[in-house]
Hints:
The protein is of the alpha/beta class. 53% of the residues lie in helices and 14% in strands. The chain has 2 domains: 154 residues, NAD(P)-binding Rossmann-like Domain (Rossmann fold, 3-Layer(aba) Sandwich), CATH 3.40.50.720; 84 residues, ProC C-terminal domain-like (ProC C-terminal domain-like fold, Orthogonal Bundle), CATH 1.10.3730.
Amino acid sequence: MGGAILAGLVDSGLVGEGVAVTNRSVAKADAVRMPGVDSYALDATPDANRLALDGARVVIVGVKPAMVPDLLAEVAEHLAADAIVVSVAAGVTTATMEALVPNAVARAMPNTPSLVRRGVTGLAAGSRIAPDQLAVARAVFETVGAVIELDEDRIDALSTISGSGPAYVFFLIEQLTGTALRLGFTLDEARLMVEQTFLGASELLAASDADPAELRRRVTSPNGTTMRAIAVMEEADLAGMFDRATAAALARAKEMAADAAG
């Protein structure tokens, strides 16, 4: 995810030069090295975080949730007074961040389609961040897709929809591909049919003024084959399944928040 955001920033021209990133290993640092970016490896440069923070206006924390508190405690004294600290770690609250650094903070929850500039990022402000600072943070994530500003008490719920959502879509594609294989199609044929159908349906929705329910009705002829298939799906209670799945994801997010808070 950090690499997607970095590529989006560089491609947008928003920052020009002056971007610095750190990774644990030389191999990972080399993988994101690009023009205008200083890429440091902690293995080779132990004070890489301090070097990267020198003059930084926006600091994006992209480590695993359990590592965020220790990292913020380590870098707090090296942050510029006007630096904005944004975490993309699930479950780590702005209150936890504000207890560790004196800076303005925010939480962001991007999703993996950010890799192709089709991301959705939820952005929640901490208690100390000013509107102009939040606008800067928003501009960073707009380089990789759409941004939704929301109250922090809703960001975990957003993570169960747009954050985890790509996995749900991939799982549906995986299952429908399996069905195509069981109907006798080759793997190449099955992938072409299923993946292009999902892509085409998404693009049709984006280009249409109609909502998904209306577009579904247009495909579903009375007493036709699609209606029979939709009836089976309705009997399976997909709505209830998605409610249960997102509830499970939300419960896990709350557990992670409790772990990060100590």
